[in-house]
Structure prediction request, 295 residues.
Amino acid sequence: MSALARADFIPWSLSEAVVSDLVRKGAHQFDSPLSPTGCGELLGEIRATRRFDDSLFLSQAEFAAAPARGVQGPKRGCNLLERLEPRLGFVERAPQVVEALWSLLGPDYRILDKRVVCALPAAALPAWVARRAQDGPIEDLCAYVRPGLRDISYSLGGEFRQDFGELSDYGADVVTLQVYLHPVAQGDAPLQLLEGSHRMGRAVCPPDLKRTGAAAWRYRNGDHGEMYLTERTLTGEAGSAAVWHACLLNGAAPAVEHPRLSLRYLIARGGAKTAGIDAVNASLAGSGRITALRD
Prediction:
């Protein structure tokens, strides 16, 4: 995909705070939210395209007659943000976003993927999909959604994972940018980060995690050893945004009553010979590349 639209200025300095936070914690949460007006306008257009309830889904008979194969989420030609592109300037031209990405990835950073992400409450699922979810976590609900509505991602919250997906060729030179489009409280599927987990480098999916307390985890990653980590939950107002390293373990709590709608960008280094992410990657165990993505 094309690079982010550049702001009409050169960033005044590299953001030492952003680079420092990614070295130490793997993530940086922006102090000030992005434009509430921009969030509200984009949110209104997204909500006008569908109801976020059981009408999203195929019937069990329809699914059985033509089960989905392979990855079913947004892709080129089937991505709601492609037709809402003019609404994205409040994110892609926000000074704090441009400065952070410039600092981390260099001036020619590239968007690899951008999409709307929807975390649905269990009550929004038809009974037959809910029964399947009880048998084990469903990472992506898109396979059960009507084909014409697979232009955004759907989940029931999410297990902890890293943000590489099929982007292994980019090594560890990738960050995620996530933006809430409305206020997100504890019951609205807030994002959860295991701060510091990025330092264990790339891991197979699912990661070797064991809960040791209400917000505490033990994390093991093969020959790289183990860490004891604290879970950080990101709540906030419309426009709240965070950026994190692709090796950071991140997930989401389940939504209780209302769907959570947000934007997710995967962004990679361009051709810059030096960038802030070099300091982040220097703290990783391993190279950031593995041959097996899933165990």
Q: What stands out?
A: Residues 16-282 form a domain with the Jelly Rolls fold (CATH 2.60.120.620).
